[in-house]
């Protein structure tokens, strides 16, 4: 399974590796060897402070940290940033005396902001335990980040509700077929034939808007990159923004909430709507499995690709990749670095660690001792690959800045409230002009 999954994810991971350093300056960063610091330190005298990116895995990380402390006697503190606030939280925490010893970046653009804080991990056991060196995030031939989870996202589907509406996932293999099913469900709800909507609310508050200004926005970027044969750009053209519009229209016109109400809708709202059987479709990722499986049987859930009417849709798979790279704070004491590297390696090699990451967190981890995930969405991705479907790589790691994402998100929210051509022009402006200006700012010293 690991070999098959590697084939699926390598494209996105290699793209991230190839882009490492993009958006940063061209100067060589003086990155200390984490292994040498660890050899000079004593892990028993150190401690770990992990700033976690994933709120949905908060409880699992706390339990795993406790288990590690009980086994080793080494203290592990886990603090989780609220959804959509990781970068600002990291900036704040890094300015404290007790700064995180372990944190994460989302890829090459994120690394550009934190490269001077990242120890070189190339000689560490955790790096050597990767199934492929391509899961290392590199700059100046140094490994400054390590991918710790590979994930997929798409349109999570309640197969039981879909069947109640008179349809099945076998019907859906393109944007047109998705649109036909979705609009039929909306019509049946209006007629009182079903009690549920097609889609959950496309919430645009800070806990939810990343699903659309980042994950959904990946689709027009991906297809443009594919067409142009590139893996990054200083000036996105917006070739597929009409496709972005039609999938966004489908979401906001066939949902549990009206477009004008989306600015206040949260990620929890969408999750609860799906859990309570209020909607058939829910754009999200494999990380949602643990929460959803508590109430919905595996046989009643699946994940289908996000079709936007572009490319070879019959052969399109899920969006698969990573934006989760562990980094070790090179300014931490030698003792703390030693403790941190030991904790990282324990998580991805020990029975307790690998089991927790696979079963409690629902992760597929790119390490040699990985436990096969029970996650039904991960299994769907593997099945898609075996069937010859091509995964959509994660190109949103090349988005020029958080400010760019926020500009797109603001424009999407305004369009949802008033879906006029003028408001869509504002989305285009934020997407295209915003990309060029933010890229220029990010690379001003390059």
Structural features, described:
By secondary structure, the protein is an alpha/beta fold. The protein has 2 domains: about 1-150 and about 320-370, Periplasmic binding protein-like II (D-Maltodextrin-Binding Protein, domain 2); about 155-315 and about 400-440, Periplasmic binding protein-like II (D-Maltodextrin-Binding Protein, domain 2, 3-Layer(aba) Sandwich), CATH 3.40.190. About 45% of the residues lie in helices and about 15% in strands. Strands 6, 7, 8, 9, 10 and 12 form a 6-stranded mixed β-sheet that branches. It is globular and about 70 Å long.
Question: N- to C-terminal separation?
Answer: 41 Å
Percent helix among the residues? 40-55%
Number of separate strands: 12
The level-1 CATH class of the largest domain? Alpha Beta
Poorly predicted spans: 1-28
What profile does the largest beta sheet have?
6 strands, mixed
Q: What's the helix-strand series?
A: HHEHEHEHHEEEHHEHHHHEHEEEHHHEHH
Strand content: 5-15%
Provide the CATH superfamily of the largest domain: Periplasmic binding protein-like II
Overall pLDDT, averaged? 92
Shape estimate: globular
CATH architecture of the largest domain: 3-Layer(aba) Sandwich
The tally of domains stands at 2
CATH topology of the largest domain: D-Maltodextrin-Binding Protein, domain 2
Rg from alpha-carbon coordinates = 22 Å
User: What is the tally of helical segments?
Assistant: 18
Structural class: alpha/beta
